[in-house]
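Re: the 189-residue chain
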Amino acid sequence: MRSNMIISAALALGMAFTFTGCGSSDSSSSSASSDTASSGAASFTTAELAGKISIDGVQLKTPMTFADFGEGFTLDSYVQSGDDGSMIDIFNKDGIVCTLGYNCGKEEVNENRNIDYILFTPNDFNRGVVSIDGFTANDDVEKLEEKLGKPEKDGIYFYEATDGGKLEVIDIMGKVSSINFFFEAPEKK
């Protein structure tokens, strides 16, 4: 349980970094050159981008709920909650897979609620669990560039969908440190 809390704290820190990075990427993406990821990703809708991502063999779709993952996955019993929403870890037979995020209070999180974002921090046992059009955290990021385009800034890959979704892959010193996917945010209920 302690290792889950440490992983969850790292994910929360990564999420804070991600949200901070979002504001700065918007201003630079408007002035980015035509060979950046933002120009290549402009042709994707959120549904098309989700269709390129799978988690442990389950193809993402939008909207998506935890129940859509099917057999072989379990939800953590602990929901983390903050001012902007809630997060809960999901597991497969090998351990923690990723964190699901919701724009609601923890009392509203359940297996049938639409997921608003997914946070993935690769480690030794799950580096290949998330696939983006064939790219995993085990691969060189050049493979990701071949699939979705070059990054706007070295080490930070932002692929924004035309309708509000977003994929972020953060590469630190040649290793993928996080993969975050934001669905088109549903209204809070």
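The helical segments are 2-29, 37-41, 46-50, 141-148.
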